[in-house]
Amino acid sequence: MLDVLIIYDTNTGNTEKAAQEILGGVKESGASVEMKKVDDTTVEDLKAARGIILGSPNIYGNYSGKMRDLVNSKLVQAKPSDKVGAAFGTYKWNDDNLKNLQNDLRWKGVRIVSEGVNVHRHSNGDVVKKLRELGRKVGEEAKKAR
Ligand SMILES: Cc1cc2nc3c(=O)[nH]c(=O)nc-3n(C[C@H](O)[C@H](O)[C@H](O)COP(=O)(O)O)c2cc1C
Predict the structure, then answer these.
(1) What is the rounded CA–CA span in Å between residue 100 and residue 34?
(2) Do you know which PROSITE patterns this protein is assigned to (predicted)?
(3) Domain 2-144: which topology?
(4) Which atom of ligand 1 is nearest to the CA of 56?
(5) DSSP type of residue 14
């Protein structure tokens, strides 16, 4: 079984860049990790991961439609109540995407083990540290669940 699966949606690369920082943090924890685009993620992928980290840009005041589809169908089918996880995002003007994604993950039964991180457009400076810390925390908790 995989320790942590990072799933992200992106149109112009900001959220992918944030996901890469998180990937680095998970690796620092010593956990096994993979990163997938939301389109390429299957129910089997979700079932096979102890920890999941989901990230999306803000699209019209919420997290993206593709990510909502994943949360409401594939994630539910994967029965995630024994999983740990966290959420992240990127935005330009308002940060509801993160709040909503984190709430929905919790509502589906995922145990949120790190504060979410929402990046204002680009990942640099202090926010990189926060993204790496998020990855480390989820990695450590997923290892405990081995
Ligand atoms: C169609 C569209 C709608 C957007 N709506 C919002 C919005 O409501 N609030 C906001 O803060 N940013 C909004 N944005 C900006 C993106 O969330 C932001 O640029 C994000 O970093 C893009 O991530 P990506 O590079 O991973 O695609 C929107 C962008 C697009 C393309």
Answers:
(1) 24
(2) FLAVODOXIN, FLAVODOXIN_LIKE
(3) Rossmann fold (3.40.50)
(4) 26
(5) H
